[in-house]
Design goal:
The structure is a homodimer of 460-residue chains. Chain A has 460 residues and is an alpha+beta fold. Chain A folds into 2 domains: 335 residues, 3-Layer(aba) Sandwich (Aminopeptidase), CATH 3.40.630; 115 residues, Alpha-Beta Plaits (2-Layer Sandwich), CATH 3.30.70. Helices cover 34% and strands 22% of the residues of chain A. Chain A is built from 14 helices and 20 strands. In chain A, the strands form 5 sheets. In chain A, strands 3, 4, 5, 6, 9, 10, 18, 19 and 20 form a 9-stranded mixed sheet that branches. In chain A, strands 11, 13, 14, 16 and 17 form a 5-stranded antiparallel sheet that branches. A two-stranded antiparallel sheet of chain A has the order 1-2. The longest helix of chain A has 25 residues. At the A-B interface, strand 12, helix 10, strand 15 and strand 16 of A face strand 12, helix 10, strand 15 and strand 16 of B.
């Protein structure tokens, strides 16, 4: 796979914090993003889909801009206009992924370096998850344009369709198709969770976003993929760091457990005669937490469901719950799953006359290691901007489009802190300063990467 | 409170199994209920509300005859016709309770001896719970009529409105109003759980069942209340008994626990940073079972709810669950509740950054002891019919209209076995033989009671 060796060759071993003066390759000192413009643009575009007011100020809302709803179509049209104003070409592939491309100095037809993320949100989402990554990328291109700065190779932006998987239930959907991990027919055929008459493909057609370009690295190749994102967790603020240099993403596996018992009257059925699936599920959830804790892993249950006719005085007939196991090492994910299932076997016969259960794996996302050169370019930017005391290497806890792009092109991510680690929530918040810092880091990392690439290719 | 002393004076101390020949008071030997007619009537009337087919035979269905729906109105009209054909007077009170009354030999205006239960069902209920009690009472009156047998005092049937509390959420609703335990305005104002525009009162009016008679022992006094019911549990079959002589009902208390946490991303939030209400609720449910087991009590959770926007990769913000605690001794119910709340306090701070919780008592039904003379009359009937080896004294695990009537008049219940102890389920089943045996026991108990009452009152 093509990729400059940023860490070992491009950056001087003794590079100090002042990257812009000590690195071989540097952005012009004037190349500084416009923090105010970034902030205004971010929030102005959030008027499309603003929802879930939590405060009195105009912008004290969350977002409900679900994939390919009318607001998502509006922000897409706006985005298309803005990148074309900058002189970018715009391509749309068969999944509605939008590729904005700014020509580099070299006039090379080689793949562009992409800054990508997504404009869709959760139904009760916030204003930063995904959106910041696209708006930061736009701010980077605007900054370059107004400074008459041209990268060597082409550089651009990707807006990935349906990252959240909230309306059409497959997360990181279109980067997954692009990477070859999700068959396009399956993705096209995803149904609106509230209206099975509507498919992702029918919504692409309705809004004019069913492009001709094959959704693949062959259809639209990328030289690299950089993504700025909010951390969505408490680690950066807890460690008083401003920039996270994301080396990879932890593996995760989602299971659904279905526990079958037998409905019975709570007043007339002795404990020893019961097949109580809710009691068993409760013990299973508690056990999975204990097992994960022992291994330094995560195990979480977000959903538990009893039948719709459940009542206070009836033992449920069946209970279903989800189990989300995560760890940066796939081997540990496997171990936690195995130990959980062993524990569940014991629990199933522990109370009364026992229960039966079955389980399915709904999602299995192996751990990902990002590209060391992309990481090095971000580290150089972070060192320049805040120094190693205020940045840190970290592993993403959540999935992102970069997890899929990393299968096909050099990829890494930049995290910035978000308040209290809260995301997927209307009150999700990052400060204007942190958004600006992350955007400046994105710009500098991309410039680094571009210059390293040119150097490696002996074109400069 | 008025009541004959059936056990100590009416029955000879040396009464043997052959009650009909050894008791001072006896039904004529020809007074035997018609098992076939009972069975046919029971299932014919179940055509109104039949639902939830589980087998191929016509009657292989459960019931969905919710209080005052159109099918409930149909069976009420049918019931009114049938009792009037027998020469009964029919009265309807302000809660739609139906009182059918057959005159006794004495022509006394004293309160009638009632056989009562209910014709409404759960939404996924069966063909026996409640329905059997009313149809058995009708069969008793039919048997008396065709044998030209008259009790001394008036005897009759009560069809209590909304025993299940499934459509209008208050169980044993109208016997509760009658007993003075539930204010009538509150009962009238209960809303259909699926349609808040419809109240219990508006449905009484729609079907012409909003009677003039005050719903109280003053409005319609009862001398006694006998109720035949399926056991709804496994104790009779487990002990190979055919008739349960129900001495009372266990106390029960229903709580709703609401556990508040904080929604957070499962992938990005370390275990030690979480406020996870579903994990805490799971530990609470498991703990409540352990505590109840220690005390020989019952503790059950039938309902658990996460927010509607719950997802696999989000820690829930709040979880609510029900807790149903039961024991024949109120003191034990209190102890179990206290120990559960103590355990919940510890659990609330056990994991991560902890959770908070609050609790409400939704229903508190103290333990009930039924009338010893009514019990003695049922015991005499059971001894006569199956002998002490095939009957047993027991405590009702469930609530019944008799729990409320016992607050105002001498009351006891007869249980018969139901298959696998299953009730509140379409497959609920009792054999024709057991239904007939219970009905015969009801007849004989009522005749006993009537004759004892007349003897006590020196009218025979």
């Amino acid at each position: 796979m093509y990729g400059p060796k940023c860490a070992t060759r491009t950056l001087r071993p003794n590079a100090t914090r002042s990257f812009s003066t000590t690195s071989r390759f540097q952005a012009p000192s004037s190349l500084s993003i416009n923090a105010g413009r970034l902030w205004e643009t971010l929030h102005k575009t959030c008027e499309w889909g603003a929802s879930h007011r939590y405060g009195e100020n105009t912008r004290d809302t969350g977002m409900a801009r679900l994939t390919l709803n009318d607001d998502d179509a509006r922000v897409r049209r706006w985005f298309a206009d803005e990148v074309q104003k900058l002189g970018c070409s715009l391509s749309v592939d068969q999944m509605g992924n939008m590729f904005a491309r700014q020509s580099g100095k070299l006039g090379s037809s080689a793949p562009m370096i992409a800054m990508g993320s997504h404009l869709d949100t959760q139904p009760r989402g916030g204003r930063y998850d995904g959106i910041l990554g696209v708006m930061a990328a736009l701010e980077v291109l605007r900054t370059m344009k107004e400074n008459n700065f041209q990268t060597m190779f082409d550089v651009g932006i990707v807006n990935w369709t349906n990252e959240e998987g909230a309306r059409f239930p497959k997360s990181m959907c279109s980067s997954g198709v692009w990477a070859g991990a999700i068959p396009i027919e399956k993705a096209w055929n995803l149904r609106d969770i509230h209206n099975p008459d509507v498919s992702l493909k029918s919504e692409l057609e309705r809004h004019g976003y069913l492009g001709d370009i094959e959704c693949s690295p062959k259809g639209y190749p990328l030289a690299a993929h950089f993504e700025l994102h909010i951390e969505q967790g408490p680690i950066l603020p807890a460690n008083e760091r401003k920039i996270g240099i994301v080396q990879g993403a932890q593996g995760y596996r989602w299971l659904t457990l279905t526990v079958q018992g037998k409905d019975a009257h709570t007043g007339t059925t002795p404990l020893e005669n019961r097949h109580d699936p809710l009691l068993a599920a409760s013990r299973m959830i508690a056990a999975s937490n204990d097992i994960a804790k022992k291994h330094g892993a995560l195990a979480s249950t977000g959903i538990i469901r009893v039948p719709s006719n459940a009542s206070t005085n009836t033992i449920a007939s069946e209970v279903a719950f989800t189990l989300d196991i995560r760890h940066p090492d796939d081997h540990v994910v496997n171990t936690v799953q195995d130990e959980c299932l062993n524990a569940f076997d014991s629990i199933a016969s522990q109370d009364g006359k026992g229960v039966s259960y079955n389980w399915t794996i709904d999602t299995d996302s192996p751990a990902v290691k990002f590209d060391k050169n992309c990481i090095a370019c971000i580290k150089a930017a972070a060192d320049h901007l805040v120094g190693p005391e205020k940045s840190m290497l970290m592993t993403s806890g959540a999935g992102h489009d970069s997890v899929y792009t990393s299968q096909q092109c050099p990829t890494a991510m930049i995290f910035i802190p978000c308040k209290d680690g809260v995301s997927h929530h209307p009150t999700e918040y990052s400060t204007p300063e942190d958004c600006a810092l992350g955007t400046q880091a994105l710009l500098e990392a991309v410039v680094h990467y571009d210059q390293s690439r040119a150097y490696e290719g002996n074109v400069i």
